[in-house]
Here is the input.
Amino acid sequence: NMYNLFPDEYDFFPQTWSIPGQQDEFSAYALQRQSSSSSTGAVFIIKPDDGSQGEGIRLFQKPKDVSLGGFVRESVVQEYIANSLLIDGLKFDLRLYVLLLSLNPLRVYLCREGLARFCTEPYSKPTAKNLHKVFMHLTNYSLNKRSATYVHTEDGDHGSKRLVSSVFMGLADAGYDIDALWLKIDRLVCKTMIAMKPLLNLEISTVIPEGTRGPLCFQVLGFDVLLTDELKPVLLEVNANPSLRIDYEKEISPGVHETLPSPVDVQIKKPVMLEALRLARQLKHGFHGGLRLADDSCCVELLPAMADEFTGMDLLDDCQKLFSHFMGVNKRTKMGATAFRTFVRKCKLSSDSHVGASADILYIEICRRNTTEKNCMTFEGFCDALLAMGGKLYGDEGTQREKLSRLLVHCLPHIHTRS
Here is the structure.
C-alpha cells in the first residue's frame, strides 16, 4: 500500500507476493517477466511463513514451482536480486539492528555496527543449472554454517561473518561513498518503520485499551539488507525476533559439538542491548530535553530526528484510526461484514451509488485474498478497500495518494459524531 501511495519513495524492496493469496497476481507477473527477459528468464525466491533457520527457502523460475507436490505452503515470494554487490567473488547481505523504543511518538534508533553474512561458494548469476546451490545464492548463517568452506574468525575482518564496519571500510578504500550509503539505509529504515507503525498500533490496541498506560516496551528488530552492484540498499525482510546469540557450535568429533563464544557477535549484540536498556531506563524514569545516547553508543537516532523528511507519509495512520474505530468493542485485528457496512453508512459513503452498491461486493472480493479467515477483512484489506473507493469516488482526479487523502478528510470527522 505504501508503494502504491509513494512509488518513488518505496522503491527499496523487491517485487513481493503473499502466497497463496496473491498467487494469480504473481503468476501473471512471472509469465510477463519470462516473455520479456533474456533466455535465462526471471528468478524468484520463496520463503515459507512457518520456516526458520533457512528451512524451505529455495529459488525457482516457473510459477507452477511455487508448490511442492501440489501443496502450497503460506509463503512470501520475491523476485530474486541477481545484481548483488560481491566481495572476494562472494555474495553477502547485512544484518542491521534497529531499536524501536516507542510508537507514539515513533522513536527509532539504528546501530551503526552489524553483521555482514557471506555465502560460502563463489557467486554466479542464477541459471537453471545452479538454482539449487544454496551456498552460492542464500546468505543465511543457519545454512552456510553447514558448508565445508564456512570460515569462523575472531577478528571480524575476514571469514564468513564479518563486521559491517570492516566491510564498509573496504568499500570506502575502493572509492565508494559510505556516508551516502548510510543515509540511504537510514531513510530505508525510517520509511519501513513508518509503514509498520499502523499495524503495530493496531496490535497494541487489542491488548492495551485506548487511553490506558500500558507497560513500557521496546523491541530490537533485525533488518536484512542487500547491496546491489550500484550500492543501492534493498530491504529483503524485517525479523521481529533476530537471533541475539553470541556463541556458536563447533563439531569437535562426529556427532559431538562444543559451544564456543563468537567474538564478532559479542562486538555487535552486546552494545545494542546495553543501549536499548539505557534508553528504555530513561523513558521509565522520565527524561528532559530528549533521550540521551551514551558517549560511546553504537546507535544513532533516526526518528524523530529525521521526521521532517517524511511529512505527509502518515496516511495509513489515519486509515488505522478508521479501522480501529469500526472494528467494534471486541478489539480484534480483523473487520467483519457488519462493521464494514457500518463504516460505509456512518461515513455517508452509501449515499453515493457508485460506492454504496458495490461495497458488499468489494468486501467479499478483498476477503477472498485472506488465506486464513476468508470472512474477515484485515487492515491491509481495509486499506485496499479505501483505495478502491477513492478511485470510484474521484475517478481520474489526481493520484491514488491524493484520492485517499480526500477520502480520509471526508471520513474522519464522522468517527467523532453520533449515529
